[in-house]
Amino acid sequence: MNPRVPRDRAPVPPVRPDGGRRDRVRGAVVGSAAGDALGAPFEFGPPGAFSARFPDGVGTLCGGGGWDPGEATDDTQMAVLVGQSLVECGGLELPDVFARFRRWAAGDPKDIGLQTEDVLTSGEPWDLAAALHFQVNARAAGNGSLMRASTSAVYFARRGRAATMAAARRLAALTHGDRAAWEGTAVLHELVRVALGGADPLAAVEAALAEVHPDHRARWADVLAPGWHPDDATEFNGAVWPCLGTALWALRTTTGFEGALAAAVDVGGDTDTVAAVTGTLAGAVHGLGAVPERWTRTLHVPLPGHGDRVLRTADLVALADRLDESAEIPIPDTYI
Predict the structure, then answer these.
(1) Fewest Cβ atoms closer than 10 Å to its Cβ: which of 39, 47, 134, 235?
(2) 3-state class (DSSP) for residue 64
């Protein structure tokens, strides 16, 4: 057991300063990016590395491991691409999202998941590439569809539980052929929807699980249970189950945004993605106002495949606003 991650830490009610829906929408998108940049320097490191670096509890976007201070990784880059497709196409156009992913992958990003790279560079069409990869490898339950879900979760939130979970599955399936990844992304979408509405996402887990495919419901129920702890994981947290489970655990056992992110990174392992997912949820709960200014000041998102383009916090805020404001545009039935 990681001594810095106590099993007996009791669940605590989160402090939710109500800055309104817009603040929560912005918090989900910026919070995910901030978590990504916070966790990146600690990726694949041991448990406790974050608290050892910042024993006073005041963490910074410190950079390291090939990342500049405040630099977001492929997690946020792909989330931005999803968000831009949704607002520019006026809805869910899966071929367009996939084409944007391919352009990005061809732009030589600093980091890209092995499975995602295999799918995007296979040369197969958008609607077959992930399925064919899964047929060959029989393993496709990585957390890569969770890491990029902040923007789509915001976009579909106003449309209700069924629509947001269906859209999450379709977006996940672009790169992940294992339904486990589809269902985990669908649960994340639904919990963000609840949080953006001002309710407690932890109280909505049971209802979300009821919508999970029956073949996958029991396993997801185990990892999302209130008593689950990161030490209970049976896979590395680069897998979809412990990644989302750790994010909920961090939200459940802390009182604020920064504390949740610190707890997530301190678990070790795939720290950028676990923290990005935690940041999506914690940002949707606590809002942009809870994201430390010392983080948002240096946060930036390079976009490989788009020249020298770099997004800053203000750009992420503008994207979040556009995603939420586009909520009334119909979704083509073909993609639900």
Answers:
(1) 235
(2) strand
